[in-house]
Design goal:
Layout (H helix, E strand, L loop, with lengths): L6 H25 L5 H23 L9 H24 L2 H8 L2 H13 L8 H15 L8 H23 L5 H22 L9 H24 L2 H4 L5 H14 L5 H20 L7
Length: 288
């Protein structure tokens, strides 16, 4: 049986991706109370680079040769910025808020494509984008004293994730997956190292298991994510991303007692609706 003929497995891998992402977010939020975000990010990318080592040993320098180093740089810096801003938001906002703002990335993708490739956003994307961004505004709740710059940084994680997604898509047209991953991890590690050194502080023994879990979570996420798309079409898997918002809400409530208000719940609903419509309408021809 071909992978595309097993949507059940695809959905299971998609849900596993959401679960791992939510658990990693909760672990990071817990760690951020005693370990600097820069250290967490740096260790995460160091571990990811080490995971790539067997592939580098097997393929040597020939496997790393590329004509698109500029795009690798943009993709790597965007991916690093996504995680750095996401972890900062996790440290200072409710778990579900940070996860939702990061998962608003599909709403940003059409605008990123417009700026990057000068491809106009199809008309059938404007309505879901508008719905989704109204939801983001409701989550940010301008004028609320409890909502501030950290929520804006959380929104920035969604924008930079969108840039990373578009960059990965463009690179995948000519570059093998392992090369894309290596340059992403290596560039992000080099960017993270000076910040980690500047904010270095001893890491408690009890924190190391969570550090390793967060560190390996990128690899686990990409493994489950890739498996999901190999078994089922994007139209089925993409909406499962928003399960991470549900899981994050449950974890935030159970661990930290975070209970979103009515405006936040309304905003989350609109972001999810906007994201789902973006996926669904993206499969249809745009109106002229």
């Amino acid at each position: 049986m071909s992978h595309q003929q097993n949507p059940t497995l695809g959905v299971l891998f998609g849900i596993a991706t959401a679960v791992i992402g939510s658990l990693a977010g909760a672990a990071t939020k817990h760690l951020a109370s005693s370990v600097s975000v820069a250290q967490i990010v740096c260790f995460q990318y160091l571990l990811s680079c080490l995971i790539c080592t067997p592939w580098i040993v097997k393929h040597g320098l020939n496997g790393l040769r590329t004509q698109r180093i500029g795009q690798h740089l943009i993709r790597g810096l965007a991916g690093w910025a996504c995680f750095y801003t996401y972890y900062l938001a996790l440290a200072h906002t409710p778990l579900v808020d940070a996860v939702l703002l990061r998962n608003a990335a599909p709403l940003w993708v059409p605008l990123v494509v417009l700026c990057w490739s000068r491809i106009m956003v199809p008309r059938n994307r404007w309505l879901p984008m508008g719905i989704g961004f109204i939801g983001v505004i409701l989550v940010l709740q301008p004028g609320n004293d409890d909502i501030g710059s950290w929520h804006l940084i959380g929104a920035l994680s969604g924008l930079t994730l969108a840039i990373s997604m578009v960059g990965t898509r463009r690179l995948s047209e000519t570059e093998p997956t392992q090369r894309i991953l290596f340059y992403y991890f290596f560039i992000s590690f080099l960017t993270s190292a000076p910040l980690a050194a500047h904010s270095w502080q001893p890491i408690a023994t009890a924190d190391w298991p969570l550090m390793f879990f967060v560190g390996i979570s990128i690899y686990l996420l990409m493994f489950f994510y890739t498996k999901a798309y190999s078994y089922a079409p994007a139209s089925l898997i993409s909406p499962l991303t928003y399960f991470s918002v549900v899981f994050a809400g449950l974890l935030g409530w159970l661990i930290w007692g975070d209970k979103p208000g009515m405006l936040s719940l309304a905003g989350m609903s609109l972001v999810i609706i906007g994201g789902l419509l973006t996926v669904l309408l993206g499969k249809k021809p745009s109106s002229k």
